[in-house]
Amino acid sequence: MATAIPSLDLDPFDPVVLADPFASHTGLREAGPVVFLPRIGCFAMARHAEVQAALKDFETYVSGRGVGLADFSREEPWRPPSLLLEADPPLHDRTRNLMNRVASLASLRKIMPEWQAKADALVARLVGQGPFDAVPELAEAFPLSVFPDLIGLRKAGREHLIPYGTIAFNAFGPRNALLVEAMEAAQAATAWVAESCKRENLRPGGWGMQVYEAADRGECTQAEAERLVRSFLTAGVDTTVNGIAAALHAFVQFPDEWQRLRADPSLVKRAVEESLRWGGTVQTFFRTTSRAAEIAGCHIPEGSKVLLFLAAANRDPRRWEDPDRFAITRQASGHVGFGFGIHQCLGQMVARMEAEAVLGAMIPRVAEIREAGPVRRRLNNTLHAIDALPVELVPA
Ligand code: OVM
């Protein structure tokens, strides 16, 4: 006997839902291990156990038909598919192994002192300056000061990186006003990114050029290298910007946790992990069933789109105690903020290192992170993004 799958009258891409996605998570989790969303014609999972199980079973829940609402076997994707995110084995494993060697922990460790010095200088400038908007001046400024140089991008036009990320993350949802507006606003960004991925526009020594050098060794074609470099540019900026913003926002809302971190700076890695669990930067990703699936006694037919609520899984009370509480001393590992399984975030160490550098710079210098105005959201079909975060950093 199959367990009946309840229907829920929820459009996850409705602006009201996007403005406060956490409000809909309880209903999604409590309706059942699998729910059907007739408003978008997709199945959905929001509990940690099922989200993780689906991510683990990459042969049933495939990525090659797109990880957004569009089924690439029926609809043409808005750009040539990513050779990592929107690919399945064996192609995925070949490209992923190549990219893992480029985006290595060893190369990141080498540059961490340089990143820390940059974060220290940036924070030193912002402390005691009165109120400022932490989104442009810190959450955007820091990643933009380190990541494009890591890839080896040309200097001119880097302002296109965030608008391009906005398009890409909106494109996982329906063709709603958010996507149409992002595309219209950032036509030039798409062209700039395409140009920037070309070999002649990448600096020697950067991660971008290293992908081409892997192509020279026969690990992929030159055309594949160009598209793999695009993955760095698409996935590496908007995500870390909003990850840092979410961490700052968490400490604004839980000031005692900032004092706890200042009292024991060795908690910084835990704090970053907890903000990844709590913050919900990447809210959702889809998979498509390659065959009939059974999960928690529920039957999902072949060819179904399944929406996985990563951020809801990260606050599932079945998995975490008092999940809505931001608590830096908790064991947050096991969160699915970076996904799980073969597609788990390639750049996760970049994201962690950037956040650690920012918090590390703030710990000795900032006695208090004071709210200086209302937080404003930037609605996006995939990201839980912050548009404005007015704060004042009280000097230590
Ligand atoms: C990609 C990619 C990977 C992860 C996330 C993402 C837009 C894109 O390979 O292009 O979001």
Structural class: alpha+beta
**Ligand inventory:** 3-methoxybenzoic acid
> What percentage of residues falls in helices of 4 or more residues?
40-55%
- The largest sheet has its strands arranged as 1-2-8-5-3
Question: What integer value in Å does the Rg equal?
Answer: 21 Å
Indicate the proportion of strand residues.
5-15%
Q: What number of domains?
A: 1
Strand tally, please?
12
Q: Look up the CATH topology.
A: Cytochrome p450
Please provide a brief summary of the model.
This protein is an alpha+beta fold and 396 residues long.
Give a structural overview.
With 396 residues, the chain is α+β, with helices and mostly antiparallel strands. It has a single domain (15-395), classed as Cytochrome P450 (Cytochrome p450), CATH 1.10.630. It contains 16 helices and 12 strands. The protein has helices at residues 15-19, 22-31, 48-56, 91-102, 105-126, 134-151, 161-170, 177-185, 187-196, 207-216, 222-235, 238-253, 255-263, 268-279, 310-313, 348-362; strands spanning 35-37, 42-45, 61-62, 132-133, 284-289, 293-295, 298-300, 305-309, 366-371, 376-378, 385-388, 390-395. A 5-stranded mixed β-sheet has the order 1-2-8-5-3. Strand 10 and strand 11 form a beta hairpin. The chain is globular, with a radius of gyration of 21 Å. The model has no long low-confidence stretch (mean pLDDT 97). Bound molecules: 3-methoxybenzoic acid. 3-methoxybenzoic acid binds at residues 82, 84-85, 168-169, 231, 234-235.
